[in-house]
Amino acid sequence: MRNLPASGPDAFSGFHPAVLLLYFCVVLFFGMFSLHPVLLAITFFSEFLYSVLLKGRKALKFNVVYMLPITVLVALINPLVNHAGVTILFYLNGNPVTWEAAVCGMVYAFAFITVIITFSCFNQVMTSDKLMYLFGKLIPGLSLMFSMVLRFVPRYQAQIKKIAAAQKCIGMDPAHGNWIRRVKNGVAILSVLVTWALENAIETADSMKARGFGLKGRTSFSVFCWRKRDRALLTAELAGFGAVLAGLIAGEFRCGYFPAIRIAGLEPKAAVFYAAYALFCLLPAAVDGKEALTWNRLQSAG
Amino acid sequence: MKLQKKFIKILLILCLVFGLLSGCSVSLPSRQTELSTDGLVEKQVFEDARKNARMLTFQGKSGEFSYSWFFNGSSVSSPASQNLKVDIEKAGSDLKGAVSSSDLLKLVFHENHLIQAQTTLRIDFPGRLDAQKVRIYRKGTEKIIRLLEAPLNQDKTSSVTIPADSTGGTCYLAVMDSSFTENPDRVSAASGSSPPGGSGTSSGVNSGSADSSAVSKVPSSSAAVSRAGQSGHPSASRKSGNPSRPSASSSGGKDRYQTDSIPAGKPKPVEPQDVQKNAKKIFYCTLSIDCKTILNNMDKLKENKKSVLPSDGVIFKSQQVLFYSGESVFDVLQRETKKNGIQMEYQSTPGYNSSYIVGIHNLYEFDCGELSGWTYQVNGWRPNYGCSRYLLKDGDVVQWRYTCNLGKDIGDHEKSAS
C-alpha cells in the first residue's frame, strides 16, 4: 500500500508535488523569458510530446486546431506592426516589412503557444490538492481561496441545475410563458443562486475556522510522501537546471533580433548546454516511457 | 389593482424619459438666441454667460443673408450691453477699381466697440457659392485695406466664419470666385503685415496647381491671420465650420492640428490633402540625414543599436534630390530612403495631420536617452509642425537630424536667439 504512487493521469504526476513544481517552474521560465530559438524549439517539442502523452488524441487536436492558427496569426501580425530591422523585404503602406520582424514574430508565436501547452500540462498534473499541500502552510488563506475558486464554476453549474429543477416543480419554469414571465423566473433562479453562494461562502469560512485552518501547529492530511525516486528525479532536475544555468551565465543563450539577428551559442561547444536542457525538458516523457517499458516487461514475464 | 400597477409603471417610465431629456438639454453648453429686431443684447446675458462659462450664440437675419454671433462666455472680460445687428447688402460700386467680384457684400455693424471676448461671426449665404475663400476689406484713408482672408465652408449652402475683432464699422466681403480681381495699386494688406511680395502670385515657387498657389498666398496676410487667430474661438469655428476644411484663419492660439502660431516670415503648414501633386513639374532640394549628436552621447545609446551607428554619424550625405510639385518633406524622405535602401519607419498621426518619423536607419526615438528622436530642419529652421505639412519649394535645404536632447543639441538655441 505504501508503495502505490498517488493517483494521477500518468507516472510522472505520481511524483512528489515539489519535484513537479520545480520542473514546471523552470520550463515556464525558459518558455516565457528566453527567445533563443534553440531553447524554444527544445521546450516546444518536449512539451508538445508530454501533452500528447498526458491527454492523447485530445491534446493533438487542441494543439493543431487552436494553436496552429494562433501561431500563424502572431507570426503575421508582428512584421505588420514592427518595422525595425536591417533586411528590408518589401514595402507595405509606405513602411518597410523586414526579415528580422518576421523571424521575431515566429519566435514570439512559438513562445506563446509553448507557454499555453505547458500550462495545459501543468493543470493536468498539478491538481488543487497538490497546490494546497505545497502552499497550505505557507499561505493558507490564499491557497484555500485558490482551491475554492477552482471549484466555483463546476459547483455553481451543478447548483443552478438543482435550483432550476426545484423552481420548475413549483411552476416557475424559465422556459415557458411570455418573455416577461420567463425573464422573471430566470432572475428568480439567479437570485436564489447568489443567495446560496453567499451563504455557502460564509459557512465554508466558518467551518474552516472551526477546524482551526491556518492556526499554528495544525497539520493537514496529505497523500504525498517523499520517496527514493523523488530524490532521484530531483537530482536529475537539479543537474539539468544547473547546467542550463551555467550556459545562461556563460552567455550561450543570448539572442537579439533587432536591428539585426544575433544569436549566441550556435557553435558546437554549446551543444552540451542544449543537451542538458533537452534532458531536463524530456524528464516527464522519459519517466512515462520507462514506466510503460516496465509495465510491458512485467506483463510479458507474467 | 393590476391596471393601477401598470399605470404607475408607465408614469415612472415617462418621468424617467422626461428627466433624461431635460437633463440633456440642461447640460448643453451653448445657448441659441434669436436676435431681436433692434439687435440689442443686455449686459445681464453676458454676465450670466461669463459666470457659467457657456457659449452664447445669437442669430440674426439681414435680407437674404443670415448671420450668427458666437461668444465664448468664459472669455468675456467686460460685460456690457451690445447691439449685435449687422446689415448685409450688396456693395454696389463702393470698391470700384480696387476689388471686383460677382459677390461683393457690404457689412454694416451697428456697434463698433465689441466687448472684450473671443468672438466669431458666421455669415450664411443663401445659396452655394462656387469659390474657396473670401476676403474682408475696409476702406482706408487712401487705399482699401485687406483685413483677412477666410475659407468658405461649403455645405448645402456656403458660409464663412470670421473673427469678429477685425470687424466693426463698415466692412466689405468679396467672394474669391472666377470673376474676382484685386487691384494691387489700390489695395494694401492690413498694417503690420509682411511685405506684399507674396501677395497675388506665389512668386513662382512650387506653384504646381491652382490650389497650392492659392494656399501659398496665405502668408501674405499672416499678420492679419495671426491677429485674428488670437481672438477667434476654436470651438465656435468648429461648431459652425465644415470640419473637412482647415481653418487656419479662424481658430484660437493653436490651429486644428495643435500647431502654435508660426513665426513671421516662415511658411505656414499646408495640409497634404489640399495639395495636388504634379509629377510633371520637377524641382530639386538638398537632403541630408545625420545622427552626429549620438556620437557625443554614446553612453546613452542602447547597446544593440551600436552596430547600426555610422562611424561619422552621417546616414545620407547631403545631396541634391528631385521632388515633384506639391510634395512635402515627408514625401521626399520616404522616396529617398526607399531608393537608397535606408530603413525608415513612420506613424500616421491624424491629430497632427502629419506623419511622425519614428526611426531612420534602425535608430529610433528614445534609442539614445528619453529625450531623443528625429527632427527636421528646412533652410535652418525647425518647423513647429509635422513634416507632411511642409510644402517644399525649389532649392530648399532639408536636414533630418537626430537629437538626444529635444532639439537643444542641434541648434535650437539659434532659433530662440533670432
Detailed description of the structure:
The complex is a heterodimer of chains A (302) and B (418). Chain A has 302 residues and is mostly helical. Chain A has two domains: 12-132 and 226-301, no CATH class; 154-210, no CATH class. Chain A has helices at residues 17-33, 37-55, 57-81, 99-125, 128-135, 140-169, 179-210, 228-249, 271-281, 283-301, and strands spanning 88-92, 95-98, 255-256, 262-263. In chain A, the strands form two sheets. A two-stranded antiparallel sheet of chain A has the order 1-2. A two-stranded antiparallel sheet of chain A has the order 3-4. In chain A, strand 3 (255-256) and strand 4 form a beta hairpin. The longest helix of chain A has 32 residues, at 179-210. Chain B is extended. Chain B has two domains: 29-268, no CATH class; 277-417, Ferric Hydroxamate Uptake Protein, Chain A, domain 1 (Beta Complex). In chain B, the strands form five sheets. In chain B, strands 1, 3, 4, 6, 8, 9, 10, 11, 12, 13 and 15 form an eleven-stranded mixed β-sheet that branches. At the A-B interface, strand 2 of A face strand 18 of B.
